[in-house]
Structure formats: structure tokens, C-alpha cells
Amino acid sequence: MIRFDRAGFRYGGTPVLTDVDLEIEEGELCLVAGRTGTGKSTLLRAVDGLVPHFTGGTLTGRVTVAGRDTRDHPPRELADVVGYVGQDPRAGFVSDVVEEELAYGMESLGLAPDVMRRRVEETLDLLGLAGLRDRPLGTLSGGQAQRVAIGSVLTTHPKVLVLDEPTSALDPVGAEDVLATLQRLVHDLGLTVLLAEHRLERVVHLADSMVLLPGGGRPPVYGPTGAIMVESPVAPPVVRLGRLAGWTPLPLSVRDARRAAAPLRERLATAPPPVPSAPGGERRTLASVHGLEVRYGPVPALRGVDLSVASGEVIALMGRNGAGKSSLLRALVGLLRPAGGRVRVGDAAPHETPPRVMVRTAGLVPQDAADLLYAETVAAECAAADRDMAAEHGTCRSLFERLAPGVDDALHPRDLSEGQRLALALAVILTGRPPLVLLDEPTRGLDYTAKERLAEIVRDLAAGGHAVVLATHDVELVAEVATRTVVVAEGEIVADGPTAEVVVSSPAFAPQVGKILAPAPVLTVDQVREALS
């Protein structure tokens, strides 16, 4: 169905893909994995013709889909064969209402009205969207928007579905819904699905095969998922735990790991419990919220929220899409004016403080990191951050190199990968070392290595007396760094306590190691290694 025949891609003088030689069969769910910037998105775009027809650059070798050479067929001539959904599904919407969006692709292909009507109804039922047919697209949650984006390409009856980071913006439950839908399409309809994903713990157990991009000009490795995972440098916690415990075969799912974990649970039952990290030194309140209410027009986003943030804390805000996590962060940095209640960061009301002053007290990295980037090159962006924050020259570039090493200074920030843009925006904010650091989905687009570097930076900030508040759906990051977890639902705080207590009691927010080894009080592979030693 999809064949790469010694394909390569070069953008300017930089090789992005080298010697790609693989064939993905019909009805296969294939996972594309690799570190940030190794060419995953480029490989996906080569399948639907966006590479090289719209990106520029030089494509060598051949890429064929259902027998069509993508060099000779631009995306419009592949639209009936390949459906593509990018990292931001909302960016691809062209209509205002769900039903109209589902029909748009068929209108572009000139299908008959009766065929369009039938396919829209079939897709609404298949994806569980029937109750949303008349909903404005702007009112959808992240999971709903992702399903609509998938539905909008499914109505054209493609043979191949290509997805770039389909769960990166979704809460754990929403991600499970989307992936269950994809698995049903593969099993029941014989659809070929090619997807790139950094959060391997969500999808690796569903994938029939895997393409691992090692980067550095080396060709990819392709084969059955289990075989690739044995040596893969990027691996989810369940696989790393299996390696530590010496389990054979290596488990890919929590279910398989639990079956093998009984002896390990017995050993951990007699080991001393891990000592939870706690803020050291004298603690002081950096921010406080009392009775906070935030509204978007008549729609309430936050209701009666009380929260106190102290130096040395790492607080994770968790909850489903649309719960109000981002609104709370925006209120803390002054981007939203409270409709009721009180917000204080230091001695100031954020919404009454000029942004140039506020950024030295509280810095926010938003979900779309590109909102903070405006210079023409990476070097210029870092130099501007040093200048604006009155930091020593090279401070921002050093932070960026720590998160995303090896990026060319001459690149435009918009040409970076999603994870690299996030790393640059984070470096810009951290250059000023504000006492309160706010991160909105900080691991979106980051591979495991970059997440480890981010975790180190977060721990260093907390140890230095800063407070970090991060809104995230990444339960594994929360298990690694958060000293406290706050769960938000429908604009209200429904849980607030030590991370180990909050996440272990929640099936949705428990990390993989916690699920596998419960009731042992361990959340990460490193905690298991420490307990066994």
C-alpha cells in the first residue's frame, strides 16, 4: 500500500531523511517513532505529496501510495487515496459546523449529493459524532476536534490515513477514545494507518509495525513493533520496566506487564517506600488565588477556585480537555481578567501589571510555543531574550541547547519541529528566571530524551526556590517531577494533594508503572531501580 524505495529528502544542504526503504501493507497500523527533529513529520508528508510539492527541498528515490508515485501526483491527485491530519487538527478546519466540515472533502472531489449525505451519516455513527452534527467547531473539546478532523478525511474513503501526533493535545481518556477508533478502522475496514507519536505509552501496544528514525543521516529501522522495541532508544515506561526486570518477551501493554510482574511486586513489598521529594529551604508564597471566577462571555471557565503556590513546589494541573487548566495559568500571568475573586502573584494583581514587568515575576509558555517567537533566526531569538531579560549573553542559547541540542542558529524558528519550537520558547521564558514558571502542555512534541532534560530543568528550578505550575495531560511527566497534583473538572478543583496519593487513586491519571505495580507505592522506573538497589 505504501512503499518507500531508497527514498531520501534534503532541505537546502541538510539531509532530513536518508535511504528510507520499507513497505507498509494494507490494513496495517504502523507507528513512526524517533527523537525530536529526526524527520517523522517529513516522512508522513512524503506519503500525501506535501513533500516536496509544498515544502520545497529535494526528494530522491521513490514514494508510492496505492501504486501512485507521489513525485508525479501532487496532494490534490492523492486526496482520494490518502487522508492527512496534522499535529493541530483545528488548523485544517475550513468550515464552521461539524456536518459541513465532514462534507467539505467530498465536495472538493465532486461527489454526488446523495453519496455525500450517506457518507456523512456513516461517519457520524462510526466516530460517535452524531450528537455533534450541528455544533460549531470552535466549541469542541480537543478529543472531539480530533475525531472530526479524522472524520473529515474518512468521508472521502481513503485507503491510507496519515496522522501526525494525534493524541498530543488530548487528555488520557480522549486519547484512548481516538486510538480505539483508529484500531476499529484498521480491524473492521482494512484501513492502513500511519501515525507519528511521541507518547509511545499510549499507542505502542496497538501498532502492528514500527518505523524508528535514528536521525544523524542514518536510515530508519522497520519491522514488527515488539522486535524494534527490544533495542529502541525511545521506549515507554512499560518497556523500560520490562528491560529492568529482564522480562521475556518484552511487554508492550500494561496488561501483559501485570501478568509478569507478580514476583517484582513481592520484592517491592519488602523494600522501603520511595521518599517523596519535598521543597527544601524556607518556603514563601509566590502566588495565591481566592474564589477565582473566569468567564468567556456567558460561559464559565473557572468557578470559586482557591490555590496557593509556594516556592520550591512543582504543581501539576490535570483534568480533561476544557476543564479550565489553561484559563487558570492565563489568569496567573494576567492574560485574563477575573470575573470574580482575587489573584495575587507576589504583591501584584497580574491583570493590572504591565506585561514587561509581569514577565520578570511570572513567565508563561503557552500551548502554541510559536506565539512567543518573532525573530528571523534562532540566534536572533536567543539574543533578543538575553537583551530583554537583562541576562548574560548566551544564557538563552545555553538553555535551548540543553533542551534541543544541535539546532542550527541560522534556522527560522517557524522551520523548527514542534518540539524544538517548544524548547526555544521555554528557553526564552527561563532566561529571565521568573520566580513563578507556568507551563501549558510543556511536553507536546517532545521525545523522551527532551522530556528528561525538561524534568531536570524543572527540578533545578524548584531546588533554586522557584515554583513551577504545569498544565499537562502527560501522566508520566507528572509522576517524574510533580510534588503536588491538582485535578480540575468543570472549572472547579476536585482534588489537591501529594502526587503519589492523587494519581494512584485515579485510573485515568495513573502512570504505567503505578498501574503495573500497584499497590506498591512506586510511580516511575527510576523509583523501582532505586528500591531494588
Q: Could you characterize the architecture of this molecule?
A:
GO terms for molecular function: ATP binding. Belongs to the ABC transporter superfamily. InterPro entries: AAA+_ATPase, ABC_transporter-like_ATP-bd, ABC_transporter-like_CS, ABC_transpr_CbiO/EcfA_su, ECF_ABC_transporter_ATP-bd, P-loop_NTPase. Residues 2-241, 287-515 form the ABC transporter domain. It comes from Actinoallomurus spadix. The protein starts with a strand and ends with a helix. Among the domains are: 2-233, Rossmann fold, CATH 3.40.50.300; 368-433, no CATH class. The chain has helices spanning 40-47, 50-53, 98-109, 113-126, 142-154, 172-189, 200-203, 225-231, 237-245, 254-260, 262-269, 325-333, 355-358, 378-388, 395-403, 418-431, 448-463, 475-481, 499-504, 512-517, 525-532, and strands spanning 2-11, 14-24, 29-34, 58-65, 68-69, 82-85, 160-164, 192-196, 209-213, 221-224, 285-296, 299-310, 314-318, 340-345, 362-365, 436-440, 467-471, 484-489, 492-498. It has a six-stranded mixed β-sheet with strand order 6-7-8-3-9-10, with helices on both faces. The protein has a six-stranded mixed β-sheet with strand order 15-16-17-13-18-19, with helices on both faces. The chain has a four-stranded antiparallel β-sheet with strand order 2-1-4-5, covered by helices on one side. The model has no long low-confidence stretch (mean pLDDT 90). The chain contains 21 helices and 19 strands. A hairpin with a 7-residue loop joins strand 9 (209-213) and strand 10 (221-224). The longest helix is centred in the middle third of the chain and has 18 residues, at 172-189. With 533 residues, the chain is of the alpha/beta class. Helix 3 (98-109) packs across helix 4, helix 14 (378-388) runs parallel beside helix 16 (418-431) and helix 15 (395-403) runs antiparallel to helix 16.
